[in-house]
Amino acid sequence: MIKDIINHEGPIDGLFLVKQCTKATSNNGTSYLSLVLQDTSGVLDCKMWQITDADVEIAKPGSVIRALGIMGTYKGHPQLKINEIEPVDEADVDLSRFLPVAPRPIEKMARELDEKIASIQDKELRLLTKTIIDGRRESFLHYPAAVTVHHAYIGGLAYHSLSVLALCEKAAEQYPLLDRDLLVCSAILHDIGKTEELSGAKVSSYTVEGNLLGHIALGAMIVEEEGRKIPVSKEKRTLVIHMILSHHGELEFGSPKVPMIPEAIVLHHMDDVDAKLNCLKNYLDMTEEESFTTKIPWMGGAMFYKHD
Q: What is the pLDDT of residues 29-79, one digit of tens each?
């Protein structure tokens, strides 16, 4: 693991995930690779000075590679000088060694997702949810919920969506005025636009559509397009789209509309609670007991006390 070799000097032969890779030109005009490798214990700056076209292909971001080289320092910082790289078949490795993963197995989340969709009594809403998920199943189950802020790990999107759904179901049990079917459908689909906003499950970044439109607009477009094909009635499409458009709660936080139906109020607050508590947990995990966290930018710069 990187944490074990970061202060080591000498030969290294290990497996890593390529987080970043840039082909550059040295002062003498030859090409080299500047890489950042990672596993769950940290990241490692690397240089490969003698390269071939095959090396560039092997070292694509998101790939798992075997790297052989010499560990040392450059300007006081640890750096691996790579002499040779080899491709590694992902089927032969445990990706959880290289990337953080959701606390629940993806297979269990997939089963729960199918059960929740099947529990929707309204036929149109059930078919809408199933059609959209089936068309993006792998992405929904494996993508993170965000690049950095909350649930930023493999399976994060499904884990977050199912957590929000569980909270919404509790609210529906408590308050009879709420339409459970609309809540279940919208809780599952509220972040479906992230399957197009983000580039992948492993080393995720924002797509062109993600940067230009954002996941809220993309999610609304998905529901409108799929809902027209099925078809789903205009009113039901409009309600689900409103839930997506308003789930950030306020215009300043990216929602084109504020919640204007009871179910939208619940979805917004349940989404907000789940995202904030996940973000807060990450900071508390790095904080000693009876101490305060550092200021958390995503939570208004607040600090939180970690009690025993």
A: 899 999 988 888 778 889 999 999 999 999 988 889 999 999 988 887 888
Give ∠ CA 60-156-193 in degrees, rounded to 5.
85
CB contact at 8 A, 31 and 25? yes
Q: Tell me whether the omega of the peptide bond preceding residue 259 falls within 30 degrees of 0, making it cis.
A: no
Per-residue pLDDT, averaged over 77-85, amounts to: 91
